[in-house]
């Protein structure tokens, strides 16, 4: 449980540090929009619960995938193909910005300790 809170703390510090970057704000809004659109689509078309729709949207866009679920409708399969091509680059760019923020905030903390 301690590692969860440490990881969460690093994530929040990285987001706070990166939030001043205009490009990050754009990526944040676009990432929220694409995850929200996928969640709504899977909820309406594939009849998943909101949580399952959100989960499936995120695991799809982060290339993790879900071992027991794939879209059942033809429309769902076509949407997922387009969703993957549209969203993966966006989400990877967003994650990269957060990672950079975590690294930079960690570096600043290390330099303060050396002074």
From TrEMBL:
Membrane topology value: Multi-pass membrane protein
Membrane-spanning segments: 24-43, 75-95
Gene3D superfamilies xrefs: 1.10.287.70
Signal peptide: none
InterPro entries (alphabetical): 2pore_dom_K_chnl, K_chnl_dom
Biological-process GO terms, alphabetical: stabilization of membrane potential
One Pfam family it belongs to: Ion_trans_2
Swiss-Prot/TrEMBL keywords: Ion channel, Ion transport, Membrane, Transmembrane, Transmembrane helix, Transport
GO molecular function, one term: potassium ion leak channel activity
Domain Potassium channel: 30-100
Protein location: Membrane
GO CC aspect terms: plasma membrane
UniProt KW Acyltransferase keyword: no
Source domain of life: Bacteria
Primary location group: membrane
Entry protein name: Transporter
